[in-house]
Amino acid sequence: KGFSSTFTGERRPKGDRIFEALGATDELSSAIGLAGEFSSEKGHTFVDQLHKVQCMLQDVGSNLATPLSSAREAHRKRTSFSEKPVLELEQWIDSYSEQLPPLRAFILPSGGRSSAALHFSRAVCRRAERCVVPLVQAGEADPNVAKYLNRLSDYLFVLARYAAMKEGKEEKIYIKPEP
């Protein structure tokens, strides 16, 4: 009948922003899964990190599916989202960034299949973040969820550049068309 239940048992329309955020997060995990498969074929060592990210996205979904306005303490305790995964992403970003040449132009999604799939994942991540921020602002989700998605998109960008570099693939740069 066009309704679904949150983890707290509350019935909401399927078009509710909670379900939009959950759907975007699920799409993100799927996009990362595809990027992980392409990256695995190339022997990239960061594939385990992508798997860990997919597991964290399950925790993101649990937090989103538990609106704080209807959550009891037991719900909140079970689906809380800490800052620790955010800090781990920042460490990964720093580690890969140190190995990359500095950015001198806008990078277009490119650089081989692994890199392009990671860029696509980054774009899906940005959409998920846009869906989650209003929930955080409304007090329905943990602010660390939005922080995690924000840092995840940066991680995916850096990882896309790293994959292209490791595979010896050229990253296409933006060139302004002449009028």
From TrEMBL:
Cobalamin adenosyltransferase-like domain segment(s): 1-163
Alphabetical keyword list: ATP-binding, Nucleotide-binding, Transferase
Function: Converts cob(I)alamin to adenosylcobalamin (adenosylcob(III)alamin), a coenzyme for methylmalonyl-CoA mutase, therefore participates in the final step of the vitamin B12 conversion. Generates adenosylcobalamin (AdoCbl) and directly delivers the cofactor to MUT in a transfer that is stimulated by ATP-binding to MMAB and gated by MMAA.
Protein name, as recorded: Corrinoid adenosyltransferase MMAB
Source taxon at top rank: Eukaryota
SUPFAM superfamilies assigned to the protein according to its UniProt record, in alphabetical order: Cobalamin adenosyltransferase-like
Gene from which this protein is expressed: Mmab
InterPro entries: CblAdoTrfase-like (IPR016030), CblAdoTrfase-like_sf (IPR036451), PduO-typ (IPR029499)
Family: Belongs to the Cob(I)alamin adenosyltransferase family.
